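User: quick one, fold this
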Amino acid sequence: MLPRPADCFQYRAGVQQLKQHLAEDGLAVLSGMGGVGKTQLAAHHARTMWKSEQLDLLVWVTAATRSAVISAYAQAATDIIGADPADPEQAARAFLAWLEPKATTVQRRWLVVLDDLVDLADLHLLWPPVSPHGRTLVTTRRRDAALTGRGEGRQPVPVGVFTTDEAVAYLTATLASHGRQEPRDRLAALATDFGRLPLALSQAAAYLTDADLECASYRALLGDRTRALAELLPDPSGLPDDQATNAAAAWSLSIDRADRLHPEGLARPVLQLTAMLDPNGIPAAVLTSSPVLAHLTERRTGTSGQEHTGHVTAEDVSRALRTLHRLSLIDHTPRNLHQAVRVHQIVQRATRDTLPPEQHDLLAQAAADALAAAWPEIERDTVLTQALCSNTEALTGHAEGALYQPDGPHTILFRAGLSLSEAGQVTAAIAHFQHLVRTARERLGPDHPATLGARHNLACSRGDAGDPAGAIKALTELLTDQSRVLEPDSPPTLATRSGIAEFRGEAGDAAGATTAFAELLADRLRLLGPDHPATLTTRHNLAHWRGEAGDAAGAATAFAELLADRLRLVGPDDLDALTTRHNLAYWRGEAGDAAGATKALTELVTDQLRLLGPDHPATLGGRHNLARSRGVAGDAAGAATAFAELLPDRLRVLGPDHPDTLITRQNLAHFRGESGDAAGAASAYAELLTDQIRVLGPDHPATLITRQNVAHHCGQSGDAAGAASAYAELLTDQIRILGPDHPATLATRAILAKWRGVAGDAAGAATALKQLVTDTLRALGPDHPYTLIHRHNFAYWREVAGDAAGAASAFAELLPDQLRVLGPDHPATLTTRHDLAEWRGKAGDAAGAASAFAELLPDRLRVLGPDHPATLTTRQRLALWTGLAGDAAGAATIYAELVTDRVRVLGPDHLLTLTARHGLARCRGEAGNAAGASTGFEQLLPDLLRVLGPDDLLTLSARRHLAEWRAEAKNGAGQQSTD
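Assistant:
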């Protein structure tokens, strides 16, 4: 008997696919989980064919058992050909024989529907024959290869849940038939709650109507995990569309059958475990972990209740998953390792509802143990990490109470939060730990160690989100409570002190962080000894903040000493030893040894690749700092290339929103600009800023740094006034967020002054920098690198504002302090010597300037190398001042060698290359070689016109010099000209 049409039947894509397969192949198999509407689709198609007179015979068979199939066939044979009903087997064979195509009789058009086929074996020798006049349609929850194999002519038609539009349209029509209306967004949300499962939605609509509930109220009841699903669906007497069972019990027979299949007694407990986890994807590693195998070994039972004595293996679990997949209870895609198993959320809820409380809690604990076991120590795979976080969130939603024991919350709750923080999802991490603190306080009490630990993680997450002041406040309050509850020297108390010290540094108080870590180190040494890992970590942090406080050389020395101890204790291949090498190289570079840092980082990355592999976060970090070191050493183009090569790996391993990925993009943009691509850098910074605001928020320190770079490139593109305006806006926000004395705030004041000077207000720049020096001395002290930098900039703008003598005096006073604090080889010291030489020349002492540049050049070559931009600049200034001091021939020699190197390093069309060629031609003329000067300018002018255009000042100067030296060469008399 054909099922009656469902109320408000929804036309779906599967209708057309079914029609096409039956027309082409004569046989189709509608396959899908229970409740997706397979029977209604089949009935709709059969009814449509019958009403349109495409059939002479329609036979509907409920194919749940072999005997039911035989009985239906026998009844058809009795009705059609008068077969003897006393022998059903013979009558069934007669019916199938009648369906066979025959050349001598009138052909009948027929359709046989085998609805709800449970076991393929039930149709052995009972398949309707292949006939050009007949069609066979099967509906089943099974998806065995033998049933849906195309080689058998059985075309599978997968049937899934409604789409959102179909679900909303169905609910709208069903409720309207009862005089009810609900907003579309509420119906869409209700459909999502039920996983858009047609059976569940039809029963939900009936319940809404019968109970006279609004959609929002019904959803609130559904969200109450203490209520069983069966309580929120119609009782058997009120089921719509002649349904036999409600959605809560729709899969019980399939589960029973799966549990009887090989491996016997395992399908049910495996399904129960999956019911505790994320319906959208469970990693394979979770379901084959040691805790899961132990749990299944203990919980597995035979169909007769007998316990199995053998240990469950990963292979057994895989077979059980395939069994559940074949019966459409789950979707198992083993090649998708990180989302290998998907389970419909209503199947999950119905499965959980059958569990006794004790078993429910044991399952939750087993699932939590499995997640913890599957969680990698080093998170290299963002897809896996995200899947584990999602599964932890799902488990917490289903069974949070079971994850709290008297000794504290399950470790997975802490691990998930830390993972969010490490992945840069700071907002999600804060929300996670806020919930954990609140729940731990309620369940365990405010003084429980786990509650205090959750508060610690929450405070650190706030700091990671860019609020170091808030982190310090929270950690200080925590320390007070820990001092009351715990021993003063307890590890959690010391960890909190470490956190306070760290965020003091992040808040701009590097000196305070150094002091705090020094005090903590003394306690670590007293309590743990010099070789304890926590002691070594504290030494690491102390060395770092010593460098941030301005003592880069001291930091490098401290890391060198720490490395010696690391090597003694753990050997050269340990991760901590590699990390210490990394930091040692970095601070060597900051102390002025850029070449040494690059060499050390190159060696380090080689070892990281060998020991950790290319995707380990430490390896990616080493490549990042190696690229940066190349840029600092003067190879901006090489740095940009290295960052461009690193970025795809960051994206692949960490994802687009990870803080390290964003930092790599920031550095890539920076060195693009340094290598001459100002437009590309500005565009990259603008895109980065949008993403940082979205991911980190507008007030995060990294976002503020990018705003600083956007403003910088605005100035570099020629808009000095726009740059000054952008820096002024940034400064306002930095004062609000970081405070007036934060090093970053002070640095922005310096850059703002610079762009005001570039925009034409040199006196205003000098005045601003004078005040800045005073404030920096107060905030950071006289020997901080920022103090020395601001003194340098003040001296520079004094000269630009017209006070050349004052500038020279200021540079002369600055140099001894830099020599004392930074050392003679630090780039900042060399820069001051460069500027001091320059101002000596501008003050009228050209010979003194040339002599000073000649003394500086060997040091530039030794420290930075011959191709560093600063070295090449020093050679160019040496050539200029040598010529102005009266030695034009000597200047021409220097220029000639410089041009060769400029072409090799920068290319023939770079502005500095063209400028050097201009200087060479001019000095040749001034040295008495008018013809050589004329030839030089004749060769230079076309390149200037092509690269810079006819109106550029350098082009105009070359035109003038060319005319002068042509005339001089023609007259045979040299007359010196000036640049």
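User: anything notable?
Assistant: Residues 426-444 form the longest helix (19 residues).
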